[in-house]
Amino acid sequence: MKSSKTVLLLMVGLALSWGLGLTAAVAKPIKIGILGPMSFTQGEGHWNGATMAAEEINATGGITVGDEKRLIELVKVDTNEFLSIPDATNAMEMAVSRHKVDFLMGGFRTEAVLVMQDIAMESKTIFIGCGAAHPKLCTRVMDDYDTYKYWFRLTPINSSFLGKVDFILLGTAGAIIKQQLGIEKVKVAIVAEKAAWADPIVAAAEKTIPEKMGMEVVGVWRPSPVATDCSAELAAIQRAGAQIVFTTFSSSVGLTFAKQMGELKIPAAPVGINVEAQKSGFWEATNGAGNYVLTINTYAPVKITDKTIPFYNKYKELYKEAPNYTAGTHDAIQILAQAIKNAGTIKADNVVTELEKIEFIAASGKVKFDKSHDVTWGPDYVTALGTQWQDGEMKCVWPYGWEGVTYEGSVPFKLPPWMVEYWKK
Amino acid sequence: MIVDILIDGLIKGSVYALLAIGFSLVLGVARIVNIAHTALYMTSAYLIYVGTKMMGLPTIVSMVAAVFLTILLGLLIYNYFIRPIQEHEAAMLISTIAVAMMLQEVFLMIFGGHYLGVNPLVRGYLTVLGVRVTNQHLLALGLAIIVLISTRFFLMKTRTGLAIRATAQDREVANLMGMNVNGVAMITMAVSVGLASIAGAIVVPLVTVEPTMWMHPLVMMLAIVVLGGLGSLEGSFVGAYILGFSESLVVFMVPMGSFLKDSVALSIMILVLLIRPEGLFGVSFEEER
Amino acid sequence: MRIVVAYTRRMLKILRSEVLVLPSRVAVLVFVIAILALPLVTQDYYILRIMILTSIFAILAASWDLLSGFTGQMNFGHALFFGVSAYVTALLNLNLGFPPYFSIPLGAMGAVLTGLIVGIPCLRLKGSYLALTTLAFPIILMGIVFAIPGITGGELGLSGLTKLTGSRVNDYYVTSILMLVLGGIMWKITDSNTGIILHAIREDEVAARAAGINTTRYKLLAFCLSGFFAGIAGGLYAHFMRLAGPSTLEIGLSFQVIIWSVFGGMVSIYGPIAGVYILNPFMEVLRVILDNFPSLPEMRMFIFAALVLLTLRFMPEGLIPWLRDKVETECPRCKVRNVAFRRSCRICNAAMT
C-alpha cells in the first residue's frame, strides 16, 4: 500500500517537474543556483555557506531591489563534477533553462567550470566563482569582455597570487629555520602535484628560491594528484637532506603526503599549499600525523575583518566543521545583495556594473574586483592566510607582521620538534 | 639510492601482491573478472572505520569483524547476482562493475566524499639501511608473504585446494568427475573476498579512505594479474613486485616525472605481453567452447 | 509525376509488407521519426542538450559493439578513441582554425591511427588479456597528457573550441542525423561480408583462418573502423562541449560505454544505441524527480547501477534482445521473424510452435 503511494508520488513529481512545475514557478524570489559536487566536501562548503547567507538575508526581509524586498531562493545544483563532466553541464543547463536561476555561484574543478562558464555566459547569467583558481577563467574576461563580463571570481585568490603568498610563507619559514636551527643555507624540496595550475609555481620556485631567497633547491618531485602512496618521494626527500618541503597540492595526494610524512617523522617542515589541510577533517584523516603542516588558507578564527570571527564561529557551530574556501558563497551572496541594492534591479548588465565598482568588507577581507573580474590581492584587500596545524588545532600563522599586517588571534609558526631535534646537533 | 629503490619497491610490491592474489584466484577458478574485488577491499576499509572510529571497538576486533562481514557480503553478491548469469561472460562482467559502482555510491551516500583515516594496527617507523619505513608497511610485507605461502599450502596440500585446482584446469571434466563445481567456486569466492578484505585491513591505514579509493588499486591489480599471467598465483606475486619496483624506479630516477609511474608500470605490462602474450607465468587455458 | 506516384506506392508497399509486420521494425521507424520530430515539439535547451549528448554517446556505444560485440575483441579502453579524437579535433580547431566539419573527420582519422597503433600489439592477445591490456592504454595516454601541458592543457584540457553550429537546434540535428546515419552504416557493415567474417573470427578464429581468411587483417580493420566511429563521437563531443579534457579518457567513461552496450544488448548495433537512449535520459529524469526532494542524498548513480544489475540478472542477453524475443519468434522452417502471436509464418506459412 505504502509503496504504491510512493510510486504515485514519484510519478506526480515527475509529471509536475517536466510539465508546468518548474517553469511556472512564481518569479518573486531571487533565485540563486549553487553549483558544486554536493556529495563532496567542496560542494557541502558551497551549499552551507550559501544557506547561511540566504537565511541571514531572508531574516532581514530579503534583498532590497529598488523599493521592494525580495527573498532569496537557493537552488541546489549537484554538478557531480569530480565523476562526470557531462553531468556537470547537464545540471548547469537545467539550472539555467528550467529553474531559470537569476544568479549562479560555486564550481570547483576547473575543467568543468570552463564549460559551465560558457553556459552561463551564453544565457547572460552572472556567475560568481568560488572554488576554481585558474587564471584562465578570468583572462577570458579580458580577452572577450562582452561575452565573459558576467563572470567574477571571489575565492580563492588566483593561482599566481597563491604563488606569491606561497613564496612569502616559504621565506618566513626559511628565516625561522635559519634563526632557530642555525642553518646557513636552507635546503628546499619542491613537491607539487602534476597539474597545469601548479606548473607556473614550480617554474617560479626553481628560479626564485636559489636566486632571490638565498636557499637551495635539492630537487623537484611531481606526484600524480591522486597518488595513493608517496613513500618513495619521501625517502628521496629525506636522502636529499631538505629542511623545508615546499608543497603545492590541491587533491587527495596532499593528504597522503602529509600523513606519510608525519608517520615517518621526516625532519623537514611542510610549507605551501595543501588544500586537504584546510579542512577540519584533516586531523582525523591523518590520525594526527598531519601535525605542523602549513598551508595557505582563506578563513581562520582570526580578525581579518569584523565579520570573520562571527562568520567562522557560526559556521562551525552550524555545520561542525571549519569553512574552507568554497564556503566563499557566503561572502558572494552578501556582495551580490549589496550590488543588487546599489543597482536597484536584478538585470545582469546593471549588476555587473555595480559589482565592478563595489568595495565590500567581507569575511575574507576587503573585496574589490579588478579589471579581469578577479578578486584583488594585497595588504589592504584580501591577503589570504597561512594556517598551521598545531596539536589538533588550525592556527593562523601568517600574516604575522607582514607589511604591517597581523590579524588578531594569530600565533607564531612552529617547527616540528623532531625536526628541531634532528638538525640541532 | 639502490637501497632506497629496493626497499621501497619491495614494500609497494607486497601491498599490490596482497590485492592481486585474491583476484587472480577467483579469475583462475571461477573465470570471473571480478571488477568489484577492490570495491570489497574498500568495503572492509569502511567497516573498519565504522568499527574503530564510530563504535569505538578495538582495532583488531573491528578488523576481524570487517573481514567476516565483507566475506558474507561477497558471497551474497556472488550467489544472487553473479552465479545465475555465469554463462554470459559480458553480463557477468558488467554486473561486477555495477556492484562496484553501487558500493561506491552507498559509501558516498553514507559518508560523503570526505577523506577518512583508519588507525594503523602498529604505529611508528623503523630505519632499514638508512631508509625510513613505517611499521605498517613492514607488516604488509610480512603478511603478503605469509598469505602467499598459506594460500599456496592451501591449494597444494589440502583436498579443497586440489578441487579448486582441478576446477581451474577443466571445469567440465571436474563436473563430470562428480565434483561440486559450484561449491568449489563458492569456496574460492570466499577465499578471494577474504584476501581482499585482509588486504583492506592491512593496507587501509596506509592510504586514504574515500569512495573512489577502489579505482587506482583496481587498475594496478589488473595490470599485475595480466603481467603475471591470468590465474597464476606466482605470476601475480612476481608481477606485483615488478610493478612495485618499476614505480619506485621512476620516482627515484626521474623525480620530475613521478606522476608517470602508473603510465610506466602499465607500459611495462604491455611490453611484457608483446613478448609473452600469455603473461610471465601464464599457461594458455584450454579453449572452452 | 507518375514516377513519384510509382515510388510512393512502392514505398508504401514495402512499409506495409516489410516494416509494419514486425514490432521491432515499427519500433525503429517510430524511433527515427521521434528523433527527427523532437525539436518540433520542444526546443528546451536542457532537453536538447541531453539528447545531443545521448546521440553522441550512442555513436560511441555502437562503435564499441562493432569491435567488441561483433569481433569479440573485448575493449576495456574505448575512451581512448574518444579522447584521442577529442584532443586532435581540439588541437586542429584551436591552433589551425579548422572548422568543425573539417576537424572532426580529421580527429576521427587520428582515432583510426590510434586504432592501428593499439590494434597491432593487441592482435596476439585474447579474451581477458586483451580486455585488461586495452584498459591500460587510456591511462598511459593520460600520463602523456599531463606530461605535456603546453600542448594538451594538462588537467584543464583544451577549451574554447568553435561551436558545433550556431544554434542548439542545429547542433541537435547534426548529432542526431549523424547518429542515425552512422548507426545505419555500422549496422550495414555488420550485415555485409566483412561483418560475417568478423563474426566468424569471434566465434572461432582458428576455423576462420583455416577457411583462408586473413584474420589479422580483419581484426585490424575492426579496430580502425571502430576507432573511426568512436572518433566521430569524440570530435562531436569536443565541439559541442567546447572542451577536450582528461575526463574524455577516464576509466569511468570506458566502463560506461560497456554498461550501455551490454545493458541494451551486445552484437546488434541497435542494442547499444537503445541502451544509451534509455539509460542516459533516464539519469536526467531521475535528476528532475530527485530535484523535488532536495533532502535526499545524491542517489542517481546508485539507482543506475542497481537497475543495470537487476536487468542483467534477469535478462543477461541485454534488454533489447530480451524484449525482441518476447514479441517476435523465428519461423522454424525458413528462419524469418514473425510477430509472436502469429500461428503461421508470414512467408512460408509453416506452423509456428
Explain what this protein looks like in three dimensions:
The complex is a heterotrimer of chains A (425), B (289) and C (353). Chain A is 42% helix and 20% strand. Chain A is α/β, with parallel strands linked by helices and 425 residues long. Chain B has one domain. The N and C termini of chain B lie far apart (51 Å). The model of chain B has no long low-confidence stretch (mean pLDDT 84). Chain C starts with a helix and ends in a 14-residue tail after the last strand. Helix content of chain C is 73%, strand content 3%. By secondary structure, chain C is mostly helical. The model of chain C has no long low-confidence stretch (mean pLDDT 90). Chain C folds into 2 domains: 272 residues, ABC transporter involved in vitamin B12 uptake, BtuC (Orthogonal Bundle), CATH 1.10.3470; 36 residues. Chain C contains 15 helices and 4 strands. The chains are: A alpha/beta (425), B mainly alpha (289), C mainly alpha (353). Chains in contact: A-B, A-C, B-C. Chains A and C meet through α1, α3 and α4 of A and α3 and α13 of C.
Globally, the shape of chain C reads globular
Structural class of chain C: mainly alpha
- Span from first to last CA of chain C? 47 Å
Shape of chain A: elongated
Look at the structure and give the mean pLDDT of chain C. 90
Oligomeric status: heterotrimer
- Mind telling me which CATH architecture of the largest domain in chain A this is? 3-Layer(aba) Sandwich
What is the number of beta strands of chain C?
4
Supply the number of helical segments of chain A. Answer: 15
Strand order of the largest sheet of chain A: 4-1-5-6-7
* Order of H and E elements of chain C: HHHHHHHEHHHHEHHHHEE
**Rg over alpha carbons of chain A:** 23 Å
Overall tally of domains of chain A: 2
Major sheet strand order of chain C: 1-2
Q: Quick gist of this model?
A:
The complex is a heterotrimer of chains A (425), B (289) and C (353). Chain B is mainly alpha-helical.
Topology, pairings included?
The complex is a heterotrimer of chains A (about 425), B (about 290) and C (about 350).
Chain A: H1 2-18, E1 30-36, H2 41-59, E2 63-65, E3 68-70, E4 72-78, H3 85-97, E5 103-106, H4 110-122, E6 126-130, H5 136-143, H6 145-148, E7 151-155, H7 159-181, E8 187-192, H8 199-211, E9 216-221, H9 231-240, E10 244-249, H10 253-263, E11 269-274, H11 282-285, E12 294-297, H12 308-319, H13 329-343, H14 348-357, E13 359-362, E14 365-368, E15 385-390, E16 393-398, E17 400-402, E18 405-406, H15 417-423
Parallel strand pairs in A: 1-4, 1-5, 5-6, 6-7, 8-9, 8-10, 10-11
Antiparallel strand pairs in A: 2-3, 12-15, 13-14, 15-16, 17-18
Helix pairs in contact in A: 2-13, 3-4, 7-8, 13-14
Chain B: H1 2-30, H2 37-54, H3 59-82, H4 89-111, E1 125-128, E2 131-134, H5 135-157, H6 159-169, H7 171-176, H8 181-203, H9 215-228, H10 233-253, H11 261-275
Chain C: H1 2-19, H2 23-41, H3 45-70, H4 79-96, H5 100-122, H6 127-147, H7 149-152, E1 158-159, H8 168-191, H9 193-203, H10 205-210, H11 215-241, E2 243-244, H12 251-264, H13 270-291, H14 300-314, H15 319-327, E3 328-330, E4 337-339
Antiparallel strand pairs in C: 1-2, 3-4
Helix pairs in contact in C: 2-8, 3-8, 3-11, 3-12, 3-13, 4-5, 4-11, 5-11, 8-9, 9-11, 12-13
